[in-house]
Amino acid sequence: MAGLEKIQVTNYLNVDNVGRYRLIMRFFYKRHRQMQGTLYRPQIFKMMKEEYAEDYSELDLDNDLENLVSWGNLQKQQEMLRPKSIEEYRNKNFRYQISEDGVLVEELVYQITHREHSVRGALNEQSFRRLLELLASLIDCQGPYIDIWGQIRAEFKRIGEDTSNYIGYITSPEVDSRMKTEEFLIYKDKFVNYLREFISSVQNLYFSFVKVIKKLELIDRERLIEEAYQKEQEVPTMNSISKADIAEQIEGEMIALYYWFIDSQERPSEYENLIKQTDQMISKITGLIYYFSQEVHQYQSRKKDYQHIAKWFATASDLDQAKKMYAGIFGIEHTRHYFVTDASEATSTRENSWTLAPAVLPLRHRGKGSRTERRVSSVKLNRKTQAEQIAQYQQEIQQQQQKVASYFVQGTLDFRDIKVLDTYSRKVFLKWISQAIAIKQTTDQQEKHHYQQKITTEFDYLVTVFVSQKERIQIICEDGVLEMPTVRMVKE
């Protein structure tokens, strides 16, 4: 597509030897700003030897210069002098100068690399007032339009750049992260006052802007276009701009002015967006100020306040006076309850708490360094105590096993013959029955009234469980009556 070809002048920023090319271009750019744009090969070679590398050769220099010339960053011109030596004849006598496109690329690179030091923009009320005065002068102008229009273009461009840069700056992640630090509290008043004064002053000018901008339709645009075209013709150039291009440019600038202050059907005006973003920033700053004040208030020590109040209560003559003091200080809706670990003397929840003796609530220091120091202690292994605990555990297991085995008569347990079932044995037998039923249901899905299943118990022997669903029995237990199907167990 026409106009969308590759831009050759930016090639030196993306090649392998980018350091060499950028050093050469920066050297040319600095000399250009010092009004010494023309440089010769020996000057460039001396600079590269000093600032780049000692082993930088003349062949490297020739290649770098030729590439920059071919990409359009530099321009070279041969001086027609009589050579005094063979070396001068071979090398020829070229002088180099940075091109206009090269200057533009270097300015862009400088702005990008020095962005943190560049102007952050501003919200300047005076710029809006000057623009308003210039627009009013254009409408009432009886002489040439072009001089006032040039000032309007410059002032409007400055306002657009300053406001967008400043809003971009205060909404950037860098400023956002710095706002969340307590150090920002020092600058909060300056920020808020600066934004509020700008909003109030610009809002006072808004209706005047709308009134003046709508009157721009009354000026003679053809006359303005003709004057702008004649001024362009005063400067002779090879690529002069046409009258149609100037007309298109002026119409576009008129539309930009109109929609900067007046809303369109598709979107709000730039003025509306500026006021909205500024107001949002004020709300954000005030919210952060409230957050930090709450944080400071939360962690502020109230020890002295509580001690002073405690002295008031200590000097109270009776309980009624203390109650009145409490209600006056803390209020009914903001009571606080403290849990005291000491045993309470109350025997009933209906006891009056005022008749009880007070318990002691130890208060420890809060904040940095308040944690109790933990000391590392060694673990001592007591073999004798360990052996006693193992023997006790084995004895308990043996007693439980004997208690369960006592219900079996010649290896068979019929639950209809049990007179009283203890709690531990009941839990063991119910677990065996549940295990047998679960295994039977997974292996045989057909429902039957009578079935049997062999299981392995935790006492290292097998038990066959016989269950009959036709008859139900009741067993008296230590903690109640258990109703269940008829079950018989056979130990193997």
Strand order of the largest sheet: 4-7-6-5
Q: How large a portion of the residues is in β-strands, by DSSP E?
A: 5-15%
Portion of residues within helices:
40-55%
The geometry reads as elongated
Helix count equals 16
Can you write the helix and strand succession as a string?
HEHHEHEHHHHHHHHHHHEHEEE
Number of domains: 4
Average pLDDT, all residues: 78
Rg over C-alpha atoms, rounded to the nearest angstrom:
47 Å
Q: How many strand elements? A: 7
Q: State the separation between the terminal residues, measured CA to CA.
A: 94 Å
Low-confidence stretches: none
Structure, explained:
It holds the Pfam family DUF2397. Keywords: Coiled coil. This is TIGR02677 family protein. Residues 383-410 form a coiled coil. This protein has 16 helices and 7 strands. It is an alpha+beta fold and 492 residues long. The chain folds into 4 domains: 8-115, Arc Repressor Mutant, subunit A; 119-233 and 242-296, no CATH class; 304-332, no CATH class; 393-491, no CATH class. The strands form 2 sheets. It has a 4-stranded antiparallel sheet, covered by helices on one side. Strands 1-3-2 form a 3-stranded antiparallel sheet. A hairpin with a 2-residue loop joins strand 6 and strand 7 (480-491). The model has no long low-confidence stretch (mean pLDDT 78).
